[in-house]
Amino acid sequence: MAIFSTTYTFRFRLLSPFVAFLALLVASNCNDGVRRRSTPTRSALRGLWKNLGLSRNNSSCVQYDVKYFTQNLDHFSFTPESYLKFQQKYLINSKHWGGASTNSPIFVYTGNEGYIEWFTQNTGFMFDIAPKFKALLVFIEHRYYGESMPFGGIDVAYSNSSTQGFLSSTQALADFAILITDLKKNLSAENSPVVVFGGSYGGMLAAWFRLKYPHITIGALASSAPILYFDCITPPESFHNVVSQDFKSESENCFKVIKESWKILHKMASTHRGKTYLRRAFKLCRLGDFDNLEDWLYSAYYEAAETDYPTPANFIQNLPAYPVKHMCKAIDDPSASRNILDRLYGAANIFYNYTGNLSCFDLGGSDPHGEEGWQFQASTEMVMPMDDDPIKSMFIAYNVSYENDEKRCESQYGTKRRPHWITTEYGGHNIKRVLKRFASNIIFFNGLRDPWSSGGVLEDINESVLAIVAEKGAHHVDLRFATKDDPQWLRDVRSREISIIEKWLSEYYSNLPL
Amino acid sequence: MAIFSTTYTFRFRLLSPFVAFLALLVASNCNDGVRRRSTPTRSALRGLWKNLGLSRNNSSCVQYDVKYFTQNLDHFSFTPESYLKFQQKYLINSKHWGGASTNSPIFVYTGNEGYIEWFTQNTGFMFDIAPKFKALLVFIEHRYYGESMPFGGIDVAYSNSSTQGFLSSTQALADFAILITDLKKNLSAENSPVVVFGGSYGGMLAAWFRLKYPHITIGALASSAPILYFDCITPPESFHNVVSQDFKSESENCFKVIKESWKILHKMASTHRGKTYLRRAFKLCRLGDFDNLEDWLYSAYYEAAETDYPTPANFIQNLPAYPVKHMCKAIDDPSASRNILDRLYGAANIFYNYTGNLSCFDLGGSDPHGEEGWQFQASTEMVMPMDDDPIKSMFIAYNVSYENDEKRCESQYGTKRRPHWITTEYGGHNIKRVLKRFASNIIFFNGLRDPWSSGGVLEDINESVLAIVAEKGAHHVDLRFATKDDPQWLRDVRSREISIIEKWLSEYYSNLPL
Fold first, then answer.
1. SS3 letters for B493-512?
2. Right CATH number for A65-231+423-511 from 3.60.40.10, 3.40.50.880, 3.40.50.1820, 3.10.180.10?
3. Domain ranges of chain B
4. A381 in contact with B at a CB cutoff of 8 Å?
5. Is 90 exceeded by the pLDDT of residue A410?
6. Which of A90, A121, A340, B452 has a 20 to 30 Å separation from B487 between CA atoms?
7. B136-140 and B85-93 as β-strands: parallel, antiparallel, unpaired?
8. What are the alphabetically sorted keywords of the record (chains A, B) (predicted)?
9. CATH class label, A235-415
10. Could you give the angle at which helices A323-332 and A293-306 cross, rounded to 10 degrees?
């Protein structure tokens, strides 16, 4: 999940549109239904998978049909504008579905901030378990992302808050509710139980969907869903503390070098000569990129912590297993230059250029996952304050200020943030007390290497609202495709998730006569 | 609760603004805080209470302070318009509150379609039990009713769907959530448990509030809340069947006379002479009132059924105990004229003129309870279809057609109804199966004399989502002030409600350390 800061777009700047292009290619090859895209050859695909660092066989290929559903712009009001329509994209895979006649289940991914294909490819768990459950798979794109764009397209939709203002989590949940209800009706599958899955913001949506729409879903797997990172339930410095601890856990020196680097970067940035040096040291394509250098490095650190997966993966970037370890190795390398900037460059080069294809870094790059709308969400309701602990944070001189963000929101969108809205609408304070006697059937997975875990639910709430915590886990690692190299703890996490979902289904079927 | 038809305003036409005026007088006398209104003498009040058919002593007088809270127009979107403000009125009584230091409870009435004073005066149960629970009482007015009017007033707010479109149940629930959260913070009463109460539409809101905002309320008493009268979960003819059965239970003849009267009324309406006769027979003030005669009679029947209370009451009209029995007596009276129209007049005269003050009926009257906005709600989301069973209904020739309503909605407001929205947003289908393992702490009270009970929850769902059903009860009779003449069954209902609420509170306090 992106966090709100000027760093936001940096994660994409070097990958250029390649990942987005790749995503479409992979998806298209496996489609077996409507609205097929042009298809690359199978050998080309194998090469792409290889580049992605994934090892897939054909049987678990990401396959789906692409469909569209007509939604109202606004579900909660009845103004003339509320009746404006847009097309919401969803992907569907019925290969293993047992069908409506057997009330076989429907597994729905509650899409988050980006192209739905991106999340679909990174939620292999659903494909992996579909045969066992004879489940229909549905991946719904979040409004205002990807193709699910109101007002005819992004240019108008994102042009100002009069059009973009209908981008909100509550509208998105209602979209899901309406689409799922209609889909079940069309499939004559009214009695098929729905389980929702989501990771990161999608995980929050999955959990909130179970809380708000229990009549539509029987349970939710909310993976790495920081539903407590609002309204200061979680101390604002927690996110940076986890990132910092990840790096510190690899080496004390790594942590120290990064922590001290900000002062050096500031100092060098104060002279023209220093800037020229920095440009060369970090192989920036343009001198203008310099202004974004600190944000670019910050993103590399926190996103490496998020995606510190035990196997190679290409979620945000194409990375080796345990990227934080690799980055710290570059910083600590005894054979490397003694110059601290060269060492930072080495770490950044691992994060942004693990394949070694780039000769220089373009910090004014693109948004291959289509996440731009998150800026608006962070400027309105998704207010997750960040701060730094002077001892524990390695970002202490890199300042993210609530006040600065607030000003930026107002100047960029003309919106005023509603920092208490998420907890008012969905809860969060005293969650154990509140949900102990209320909710049921939610799994909160968190990996403690993931900085977002600091805002996650880390303890069981009652006998069916359960926390699964993996000490070595990263951001929704459980949702990734299983690989032969997965460590045992990850296999155990997934086994437990599967057995919990089995229990939900079994209880549902036993209650079906009601 | 009003139902959507052209009959809507008829319940008010004869009472003129007297009830509204009276309501304000009564409220004002008991205020002991801010924004006091001019105060009538105590002897004048005694007279007013007597006219209302109520016997009240000073200790249970309806007392409150009037306050206002600033709300955003739209909670679910972030357009510039969403930030427009309006003042939401609420009434508060802290006379018996144990205070924040003891975490004493807060009882909140979730206001429905009308002036909040109207519901406050008809929810004496909350005043009756406040001392026992040391509870703070809060009655929140629903947006777009009473004084809680966006856009500076009703003239603009109701002028078209661009302004009125923000009148919706979801926005209202969010208003409640925000107001309660803010109020608790201001009172430093964050740990005081909130129990919500509501009758009719307010009862639906109370139940939905517990379902959607369990982090804000620990339980809901949803009285006469027809949450299943949507999307054909309840057969559309059910409402009229109950009204008809109420009249039939008094006498078979009463039912038959009413059932046959529609044909006679139609026939007479086809000639000028017939119209003149009807005007005279029903003592209509103006010949023009004739066009509304059928609706006026229809309203008298169904509203008498709704308010078939065991003691005199003035909720919709000033009525004796068991008004349906009185109306049937008028129809069956062996000493009355043999003319069927005279007998219908006798019944209508009981409903609309029990005090005998009116010399003629003005069918173009006013809206003393401020319910006009319900028309818009029924034209958008509150779609509760009505139909007639040819055998069981006494309204068989009085036709309420979904298609006609649909056309009227579109022509009046330019809105298209969303008949599946309520069940999509709040559920309702298979409610037992859905809520069995999910919800907790809701009481659904229904009186089977009340036609709305047909859309109520009449069976326990789990050990804490409970149905209390009173065979002889009418529309939210349990919420009314206790009187010395209350039958035992009504005392038992209230005792049970009190003991259930006690249990919720006790559980809450035992979980407070969590």
1. HHHHHHHHHHHHHHHHHHHC
2. 3.40.50.1820
3. 65-231+423-511, 235-415
4. yes
5. no
6. B452
7. antiparallel
8. Glycoprotein, Hydrolase, Protease, Signal
9. mainly alpha
10. 130
Q: Each residue of A385-405: pLDDT tens digit? A: 989 999 999 998 776 566 777
B415 touches A: beta carbon within 8 Å: yes
State the residue for tokens 């009473």.
Answer: B146
Question: Nearest-CA residue of chain B relative to A465?
Answer: B438
Neighbours of A435 (CB within 10 A): 19
Environment class of A33 (CB within 10 Å of its CB; exposed 0-12, middle 13-18, buried 19+): middle
Partner-chain contact B214 A376, CB within 8 Å: no
pTM of the model: 0.90
> Which chain A residues contact residue B512 at CB under 8 A?
433
How confident is the model over A123-163, as pLDDT tens digits?
999 999 999 999 999 999 999 999 999 999 999 999 999 99
CA dist A340 and A188 (Å) reads 64
Closest approach of chain A CAs to the CA of B177, in angstroms? 7
Nearest to A157 by CA among A140, A168, A145: A145
Give the integer Cα–Cα distance in Å for A196 and A205: 9
Rounded (5°) CA angle B118-B121-B124: 145
The two structure tokens encoding residue B233: 């979960």
Among A94, A148, A200, A223, the one annotated catalytic: A200
pLDDT digits (tens, 9 = 90+) for B356-414: 999 999 887 778 899 999 999 999 999 998 899 999 999 987 765 667 777 777 788 88
Structural tokens at position B25: 């007088």
pLDDT tens digit sequence for B409-429: 778 888 889 999 999 999 999
ipTM of the complex: 0.89
What does the block give as tokens for B230? Answer: 């949507």
Q: Which of B75, B213, B437 sits opposite A440 (nearest CB)?
A: B437
d(CA A80, nearest CA chain B) in Å: 6
- Is A475 an active-site residue? yes
Q: Which tokens hold the place of B289? A: 């009132």
Task: Give the type of residue at A494.
Answer: R
